[in-house]
Amino acid sequence: MTRPCPFTYRDDTLMAMVHTGRSDRLSSTGLVILNGGPQYRVGPHRQYLQLARRASEIGISCFRFDWAGEGDSEGIGTGIQDRRGQLSAAVQAFRDTEPHVEQIVFYGLCEGASIALLNHHHIERCVGVILANPWIDDEKIQAQSQLKNYYGRRLFSKAFWRRVFTGEWKWRNSTRIAGQTLKTSLSSQSDQSLSHAMATAASTCPSILYISSEFDDTREAFDHALNKDPLWQKARRASQWQDIYIKGSDHVFSTTQSHAELENACISYLKTFIDH
Predict the structure, then answer these.
(1) How far apart are CA 47 and CA 50, in angstroms?
(2) In what order do the strands lie in the sheet with 29-34?
(3) Is position 276 within any domain?
(4) Which domain-ending residue is among 158, 185, 212?
(5) Which of 71, 83, 176, 268 could bond 66 through an S-S bridge, CB–CB 3.0 to 4.6 Å?
């Protein structure tokens, strides 16, 4: 059963939908789905809606909502590091309407994944987090990743060299952008506050499922931090960490195949928390 569940945060009404798990399989675990970026609670390509329906079929109740100032919710939007109050209010509303829910798993895409990781330890009995292509707001890391992956791939691309030799390549603009990227990647300054806050939070998370796409700049930047930053390496050792890599997928898992693989990975993970 799916029904609206508006709730109040400060003086604003935020819109949410609750999917109650099947009564013959009802679990004490609940799934809270977090939007990333200016997304509506249905999700890109109806991703959040379909995931909630799949999870409810195995007895896990789900809660998906619009952040303040987004979708159908009132209020003013805030940065991703200022969502703790909204998240706490959302989880409380979920538990009030679904009193059988005792423990929480978060699912987040992009910024939603970052928010889930940053705040899991502020939510009572949060037992796991699903990270789908998490966002790290660090220009230096993004530039280094872009040099390695985007520009590195182009050097071995037949289509690129064909454009060069036929004069189709706009070299002035391209070299200017590449130069700026190189300069940023070599900068001695790097704002790693968000990345380090996420890594510190990850080290205390009981269980993490990291789902990544093949064709995604956001994922490449996150992987760069994951593999190079000692704080992230420590976090991976400290928590129960699982990796799922989906070939052929873009940032939002928009193809039928990648969407199915995403859902299947999430459902398999959620089943480990079912208490019967």
Answers:
(1) 5
(2) 2-4, 16-19, 61-65, 29-34, 103-109, 126-132, 207-213, 240-246
(3) no
(4) 185
(5) 71
